[in-house]
Design goal:
The complex is a heterodimer of chains A (248) and B (111). With 248 residues, chain A is an alpha+beta fold. Helix content of chain A is 42%, strand content 10%. Chain A contains nine helices and four strands; from the N terminus they run αααααβαβααβαβ. Chain B is built from four helices and three strands. The chains are: A alpha+beta (248), B alpha+beta (111).
Chain lengths: 248, 111
């Protein structure tokens, strides 16, 4: 009956509520232990855990309370997981109002964007908490968004009708991915979005805006949507890149 | 009545005993078939105390460790009596059935 064994039993007896019962059980456990034993057996430990937790429930006359406790624990776990998942899909507080500039989409866009030549299409995606202000304008809260630039070489110069159908195709392709929430098409090099897309918010020099692809900006309900969207859009003709945007 | 409960009541029937003595007595009475774990024993004792079938008797301290004795109450004795009668009836029923099997020559019955 070593002190070490007593300490080990006392450790597992902490599953029981504090009180004289612990000392009483310790005495019984030590008396039951054969002299050569130095540590509790697995069966003893399991027994102490199960009955210790049950003793903490405080109703030893009824087993219904155990069932009830298990059900409550399961329900709490499920509700907690559901709540955590819901919260995980929401942006952290403040990102919707953290935008440092007004969203410019409400301004009428020039209908006649100049024809464009230059590098083939780029699609890039921007998950930009700051830009989520844009969706705040719509009364929605979004986790992020991305932009895509689909331009098939040569197509851009062919006029609006073709480009329109191309845009529609891209729109359909992008919307097919679950979790995308909204699309904005940017084609005006003078648009503020171009500055953020290509110059990190700085000014585009000269006519460089005319030489870069135009792009889609697509809202994501969660950053986790991005890989599926990228794999959907990347193989499309004329698409050069899909990427997350940066916070602004 | 579950088997540990039955054996605990049986062990406490003649005299008050403390935890380890109950475990030993149960092992002896059941020919070593039943080895009560401490957690099982005290959970059953708590339940029996709550039901009024068992009550704490006295407390001693041996080697600096507490020993609380438990004794069977009158209700406990009645409950054990009823359970014993029930088991006796079960045993008699099974014995009669096995005797019938033997009469019909349906194979050996160990005696």
């Amino acid at each position: 009956m070593s002190d070490r064994l007593a300490r080990r039993y006392a450790y597992w007896l902490r599953f029981y509520p504090p009180g004289p019962r612990r000392a009483e059980m310790l005495a019984t456990l030590l008396e039951c232990a054969p002299p050569e034993r130095t540590r509790p057996t697995g069966r003893e430990i399991l027994n102490l855990i199960v009955y210790g937790l049950r003793a903490r429930l405080g109703h030893p006359a009824s087993t219904a309370v155990v069932v009830l406790a298990v059900l409550v624990a399961l329900a709490s776990g499920l509700l907690g997981a559901a709540a955590a998942a819901r919260i995980g899909w929401w942006p952290p507080a403040g990102t919707c109002t953290a935008t440092s500039r007004p969203w410019r989409r409400s301004r009428p866009r020039p209908r006649s964007a100049p024809p464009r030549s230059g590098p083939p299409a780029t699609i890039w995606c921007s998950a930009t908490p700051g830009r989520s202000g844009a969706t705040g304008r719509r009364g929605l809260r979004r986790r992020g968004q991305f932009s895509a630039h689909p331009v098939r070489p040569g197509l851009a110069g062919r006029g609006r009708r073709h480009r329109g159908s191309s845009r529609r195709a891209r729109r359909l392709a992008a919307v097919r991915v679950g979790g995308t929430t909204w699309l904005l098409f940017h084609h005006d090099p003078h648009d503020e979005e171009y500055r953020y897309a290509y110059c990190d918010g700085g000014r585009l020099t000269g006519d460089s805006g005319m030489k870069v692809p135009y792009f889609w900006e697509i809202g994501l309900s969660s950053p986790g949507v991005f890989p599926a969207l990228a794999s959907e859009v990347t193989p499309m003709p004329g698409v050069v890149a899909v990427r997350h945007g940066r916070a602004v | 009545m579950r088997e540990p409960t039955f054996w605990i009541l049986t062990a406490l029937a003649p005299e008050p005993r403390y935890g380890y003595a109950v475990i030993q007595e149960v092992t002896r009475l059941s020919d070593g078939r039943i080895t009560l774990q401490a957690g099982t024993l005290y959970a059953a004792l708590d339940r029996l105390v709550a039901l009024g079938l068992v009550e704490p008797d006295r407390e001693e301290t041996v080697d600096g460790r507490p020993r609380r004795y438990y004794r069977l109450t009158a209700d406990g004795a009645t409950a054990l009596d009823d359970e014993t009668e029930r088991l006796r009836a079960s045993v008699e029923a099974a014995t009669a059935q096995l005797a019938a099997r033997r009469r019909f020559g349906l194979g050996p019955v160990s005696s």
